[in-house]
Every structure is written in structure tokens, then in C-alpha cells.
Amino acid sequence: MSDSTSTPAPSITIRKNGPLLITGDITLTDHEGNIIEPPKRPFALCRCGSSDNKPYCDGAHNRVGFCATAAEVLSE
Length: 76
Ligand code: FES
Description:
Layout: E1 11-14, E2 20-23, E3 28-29, E4 35-36, E5 43-45, H1 60-64, H2 70-74
Antiparallel strand pairs: 1-2, 2-5, 3-4
The chain binds FE2/S2 (inorganic) cluster.
């Protein structure tokens, strides 16, 4: 049974020409399996490669004009 205080189901949303928005009860780990606690929830993971705060998005995708691949754009 769920109530209004329960954590939402895990979800990853691809933002248009932006990051991956992560919501819900999900565990983030590094390449060695160590758990990383995000600074806030929900959180956004960089998809453009330009963030100075990887793995998190810092908004740099706007500055560099990140554009998703053609296949991703066509499916929107
Ligand atoms: S997606 Fe936002 S800084 Fe890379």
C-alpha cells in the first residue's frame, strides 16, 4: 500500500538537449560499486560531457549548445 509520503518509483527522464533526470528510490554507484549519495533528490546526470561537476549536470549543456543525437530528436 502506498501513501502520499512514499518515495516515487525510480524513473529516468531524458531532458531535451539536456541531462538525465533521476527521480525516485535509486542507488547511484561509482565504477567500483561504491554508493554515491547525490547532493539532492531528484538529481540530474550530465549527458553532454561538459559539466564541471560530473556526474551531475551543472547547466553547462546550455552554455555549450548541447544537441541530442538525431535519433533522439526524431523520437520526441
Ligand atoms: S547535461 Fe547538463 S551539463 Fe551536461
